[in-house]
Design brief:
The protein folds into three domains: about 100 residues, 3-Layer(aba) Sandwich (Cobalt-precorrin-4 Transmethylase, domain 1), CATH 3.40.1010; about 100 residues, Methyltransferase, Cobalt-precorrin-4 Transmethylase, Domain 2, CATH 3.30.950.10; about 170 residues, Vaccinia Virus protein VP39 (Rossmann fold). Helices cover about 30% and strands about 25% of the residues. The protein has 13 helices and 17 strands. Strand 16 and strand 17 form a beta hairpin. The chain is elongated and about 80 Å long. The N and C termini lie far apart (about 55 Å).
Length: about 400
């Protein structure tokens, strides 16, 4: 019995930068019998001489809504040219997101990081691939904090190899070499391995990708000694002490959380410890003391912990809707307005997890009473740090 042929809405052909396209026989036959093609402007320059004389080209230029509407007017298969592998940070993923019912078929080529590994004979079994192309730094920050030994990076015209090298040096990741692959597979291909410092002053072809190779291990402490933090002038004791800090991190239960707010961050110690152990987190550190802006940044750099957003302002004066909504909050300071703070955060997310460290019984009472009224379940661990400092770590969870 002959199997019924499924209609394909999009054929995704991965291409390289070769002057003469390197296509399989299947791809050549598909191109010859098709009439509707799509891709970026650079792709068209590479393939237009090989397309049928009568054809229509739909340019992919970044305006996705208009592009998808145009695609919907087409009732035949569309051949889309993409760079390398369409499902490696590629247009195939975009189509699946915007047209989830579309039928796709890929004829891929090597992605740029694979090519760079091939050309440098790099074993990429354990390669950690990240993209900062049109994105923020978070994926690269996470890979660096995780101490990945081999990191492949897709760059863009702002987050260049030089910008990457500068950021890595700023946060103390000087234990990597950087290999840049420019215009791979083209007539102007160039590959070079540099020390990070040398890379900071170089300009590279905009069409590039990067391999970061760890040269020596970098220590990642679990529990940072208090004395190593930069502190407020004449206020060296104004820091959440390491045993309390680690117990607090445990109470925060950050494993499956996405956004963590550290309110009353002071030196940034809790935020830094949390980011060190859970680098996937989006962390916002709120502090109203202006002197703490420099202190937190210095500590973030000292302990190689990029990716913490520092907000210096009175928490109650901020438009909190402009920040990513928290699913866990640590209250390190509240300026005597603990109940108001809790209610404000609760309005943003009624399922947010609260943790605070209370020295005064009044703070404990307000925390417990306010959150009990909001139907939270409270758990408390009390730690006697020394003969004079008893601290209660309160956790409030709302499971609905």
């Amino acid at each position: 019995m002959k199997q019924k042929t499924t209609h394909i809405d999009f054929y995704l052909i991965g291409i390289s930068n070769h002057t003469t396209p390197q296509w399989s026989n299947d791809a050549v036959q598909l191109i010859q019998k098709s009439t509707i093609f799509s891709g970026g402007k650079r792709h068209y320059q590479l393939v237009k001489a090989y397309l049928p004389k009568i054809h229509k080209w739909i340019e992919i230029s970044g305006k996705m809504d208009a592009l998808i509407q145009q695609y919907k007017t087409i009732d035949v298969s569309i051949v889309v040219f993409v760079s390398g592998d369409p499902f490696f940070y590629g247009f195939g993923n975009t189509l699946q997101r915007l047209l989830p019912n579309a039928q796709l078929k890929a004829l891929p080529y090597f992605n740029s990081l694979q090519l760079l590994c091939h050309k440098t004979q790099t074993n990429y079994n354990n390669l950690k691939s990240v993209s900062i192309h049109g994105r923020d730094w978070s994926a690269l920050d996470e890979a660096l904090i995780n101490r990945n030994e081999l990191i492949g990076v897709l760059t863009d015209n702002k987050k260049t190899p030089a910008a990457i090298a500068k950021r890595m040096l700023q946060y103390g990741f000087n234990n990597y070499s950087i290999t840049i692959g420019e215009a791979l597979d083209s007539d102007t291909e160039c590959i070079e391995q540099l020390h990070l410092l040398a890379c900071t002053t170089k300009i590279h072809n905009a069409l590039n990708c990067v391999l970061l190779k760890q040269l020596t291990p970098k220590n990642k402490p679990f529990g940072i000694p208090d004395a190593t933090f930069v502190s407020l002038e004449n206020r060296a004791n104004m820091i959440t002490k390491m045993p309390i800090r680690l117990s607090t991190i445990s109470a925060l239960a950050l494993q499956n959380k996405n956004v963590f707010w550290d309110i009353g961050s002071c030196t940034g110690s809790v935020a830094i410890e949390a980011k060190q152990q859970f680098p996937h987190l989006k962390i916002v550190a709120f502090e109203k003391r202006t002197a703490c802006a420099t202190i937190i940044q210095q500590n973030i750099e000292r302990f190689s912990t990029p990716g913490i957003e520092i907000i210096i302002d009175d928490f109650f004066n901020l438009n909190l809707n402009s920040f990513p909504k928290p699913d866990v909050v640590f209250i390190g300071g509240h300026g005597g307005r603990l109940k108001e703070l809790i209610q404000t955060v609760y309005q943003l997310n009624p399922l947010v997890r609260f943790v605070t460290n209370a020295v005064r019984t009044t703070s404990s009472s307000v925390f417990i009473e306010t959150l009990t009224d909001l139907n939270y379940t409270i758990s408390t661990n009390t730690i006697l740090l020394n003969n004079h400092n008893k601290i209660s770590i309160h956790t409030a969870e709302n499971i609905k």
